[in-house]
Amino acid sequence: MKPRHSRSKPADLAAEKLEAAFPSARYFQVHFEYLHETIAELKQQIETANRQIAELQRRLPEAEAKQRMELDGKAASAFTTQDWCL
């Protein structure tokens, strides 16, 4: 019995070897889906952080003014007119 020869061309054999050497298309699909989900989660976290920063920046002048008033009140009460005796 004679051995059967493959009807594949040498170029087809080279392509098959290349396909065997690289991951399948499904691997890349899963990988890119994971990246897409991760990027979406990171964008959401950035948006949340930006809203929190905006809120803190809005409240900062109020907090600074309140702190200044408290410090001014403490400084004024630290020295009374009785301390200014000559």
Plain-language structure description:
The longest helix has 54 residues, at 25-78. The chain has helices at 10-21, 25-78. The protein has two helices and no strands.
Give a summary of the structure in a few sentences.
The protein is an all-alpha fold and 86 residues long. It is 77% helix and 0% strand.
Write the layout of secondary structure elements.
Blueprint: H1 10-21, H2 25-78
SSE arrangement, N to C = HH
Largest sheet, strands/sense/barrel: none
The computed structural class is: mainly alpha
Uncertain residue segments:
none
As a percent range, the share of strand residues is under 5%
- Quantity of strands, as a count: 0
Helix content: over 70%
Number of helices, counting only DSSP H or I runs of 4 residues or more: 2
- From the alpha-carbon coordinates, what is the Rg to the nearest angstrom? 37 Å
Average pLDDT value? Answer: 80
The shape, in one word, is: rod-shaped
How far apart the termini lie comes to 129 Å
